[in-house]
Design a protein that fits this description.
Elements (H helix, E strand, L loop, with lengths): L8 E4 L3 E4 L4 E2 L6 H10 L12 E6 L5 H7 L6 E7 L5 H8 L3 H4 L3 H8 L4 E4 L2 E7 L2 H7 L4 E6 L13 H9 L1 E9 L4 H9 L2 E7 L6 E7 L1
Parallel strand pairs: 4-5, 4-8, 5-7, 8-9
Antiparallel strand pairs: 1-2, 2-3, 6-7, 9-11, 10-11
Helix pairs in contact: 1-2, 3-5, 6-7, 7-8
């Protein structure tokens, strides 16, 4: 299995980064920041559930947009861990975030740390760790449990490894009692794997043109 490698990009309309490896955009063509808020924040009932030390974990760091959206609403010391196999360069992330002025306005501490090769840094009240490498290796070795998961890998059709029953079983194993997940996908095999991993899974209205998304709570 791979550890991590720089992601190769093309740019749609000059502003939206698209992974040439997975042939999939890094964020929604229909306002990625609004989708992040709808899917990952509202889907996990955030910020209402945030308490000191609350731990959020994520599959697929991408441009860091989810982290930045969280930083805009967090008033509580929080931990954020993200698993990423194909990290973007700081200049590419900065270019992508220029599409979202609100997120870009709070991104400088993250971009500075990232440009220096730091994978642990502080972003306001959020203690951040980005774990580089194949999540099939790194998640199994992770010693913590998350209170909420952002499942934000590329499309299951394009990136099936990150949505495998084995990976989603590890997500369940690394979730605190009563913890939650949210994801933009409503693919049947993903929902079934999450149910098998111990979650009570709901199909909810999606964002924009996406009819459905999924969210759930560990039973």
């Amino acid at each position: 299995m791979t550890t991590s490698s720089q992601s190769a990009l093309s740019w749609r309309d000059g502003v939206i980064p698209v992974s040439t490896h997975f042939d999939d955009p890094y964020f929604s063509l229909n306002d990625g920041l609004a989708e992040t808020r709808h899917v990952f924040l509202q889907g996990n009932d955030l910020p209402a559930r945030l308490t000191p030390g609350f731990h959020i974990a994520e599959l697929g760091f991408g441009t860091g947009l989810n982290l930045l959206a969280l930083s805009l609403i967090t008033e509580t010391p929080t931990h954020f861990t993200s698993f990423e196999a194909f990290p973007l360069s700081a200049p590419d992330i900065a270019r992508a975030l220029d599409h979202f002025p609100q997120a870009r306005a709070v991104a400088e501490p993250f971009l500075t740390a990232w440009s220096l090769g730091q994978t642990r840094f502080q972003l306001g009240l959020i203690a951040v760790e980005i774990i580089l490498g194949d999540a099939r290796d790194t998640l199994a070795r992770w010693p913590h449990k998350a209170d909420a998961w952002f499942l934000d890998g590329f499309s299951p059709a394009k990136n099936p490894e990150l949505w495998s029953p084995e990976i989603l079983s590890e997500v369940g194993r690394h979730t605190a009692p009563g913890g939650t997940f949210a994801t933009y996908t409503a693919a049947g095999h993903v929902r079934r794997s999450l149910q098998a991993a111990g979650f009570q899974v709901e199909r909810r209205p999606g964002h924009g043109k996406k009819r459905h998304m999924s969210a759930g709570t560990l039973r």
